[in-house]
Amino acid sequence: RAKLESLRAATPIPINTAAAVEVARLEGELKAGINSGQMQLYVQPIVDMRSHQIIGFESLVRWMHPITGLVRPDFFIPLAERSGLIVPLGRWVLREACHAALRFDREQNHAKMAGKSGFISVNVSAGQFHDPEFIPELASILRETKLNPERLQLEITESILSDTSAAKRWIAGCKKLGVRIALDDFGTGYSSLSYLHEFDIDTLKIDQSFVRRILEDKRSEKIIITIIQLSQALGLEIVAEGIETQPMFDRLAALGCHYGQGYLIARPSPIDAYFAAR
Ligand code: C2E
Ligand code: CA
Ligand code: CA
Ligand code: CA
């Protein structure tokens, strides 16, 4: 019997070959897509909730597949993460986003923006965080584009911070270059409060799951109130994302939320959409 058990333990878990082949095929397509210009940078504005002026944009990548059409990041970002393709993809997004910020200046679009120049916020995945070339690449992209680093914000999630010492070094490296750090999907992770104490964060982005329920659910509203108070106490900027209706917007503004983002204000769109009308 013991022999049978050990034999069973040694038998590899059968791989679903069809699924593995499919994943490999998709990875190949994604790689080809990254290399052949199928990726597109979309941007979604972030506004000052009092003045309604655009203060910056979040960049959100899209994959224009030649046959399937537009593929959502929720599908291909995990694929990119698993395959390591997130590194070249993330690098492309970062460079593209910096160029987009400069284009907003060139086209004098900041007439619509508060202050002189808006910022661009870029999502950074765990795979990029662990890439030793990330910080040197970031430095060279900034050098190359001459974008004022204060106008670049990197969005990370709490999961990245669990490796405390690596995260501290990483954030310090980014800060040294002058870029800002936002904590995305705030409230969905585990030790949010200790993280805030420990890391040099500039902005909190309240997760959509709380924003979505703000009007119906007292608990979600209380969580948002607490996050806003916390951000005020710690001198952090705060962005509510996923604002879909006017009543949601009004409630968040009344609670003292600085900045907002969501379909009510604008859906993500190609950056050209911001220039096409003029
Ligand atoms: P995220 O960073 O939390 O981005 C916000 C998501 O919410 C975006 O989805 C955006 O289109 C969507 N959204 C904005 N306003 C509203 C609203 O009012 N209602 C609703 N229901 N949704 C709203 P998207 O563009 O599909 O991206 C999904 C996720 O994919 C992002 O979540 C982010 O985690 C990841 N992602 C997107 N672009 C990149 C990228 O360039 N790099 C990396 N690493 N991840 C990315
Ligand atoms: Ca984000
Ligand atoms: Ca988010
Ligand atoms: Ca998310």
List unreliable stretches of 5+ residues.
Answer: none
Distance between the termini: 78 Å
Helix/strand-derived class?
alpha/beta
Shape: globular
Helix tally equals 12
- Rg for CA atoms: 21 Å
Count the beta strands. Answer: 10
Heteromolecules bound = ligand C2E, calcium ion
How is the biggest beta sheet arranged? Answer: 8 strands, mixed, barrel
Mean pLDDT: 90
Note the run of SSEs as H and E: HHEEEHHEHHEHEHEHHEHEEH
Proportion of residues in extended strands: 15-25%
Helix proportion of residues, in percent?
A: 40-55%
Sequence of strands across the biggest β-sheet: 1-2-4-5-6-7-8-9
Notes on the protein architecture:
The protein has helices spanning 2-10, 17-35, 73-83, 86-106, 126-129, 134-145, 164-177, 192-198, 208-212, 218-234, 246-254, 273-276, and strands at 39-48, 54-65, 69-71, 119-123, 152-157, 180-186, 203-206, 237-241, 259-261, 269-270. With 278 residues, the chain is an alpha/beta fold. The protein has an 8-stranded mixed β-barrel, surrounded by 5 helices. Helix 2 packs across helix 3 and helix 4 (86-106) packs parallel to helix 6. The mean pLDDT is 90. It binds ligand C2E and calcium ion (3 copies). One calcium ion binds at residues 184-185, 205, 241.
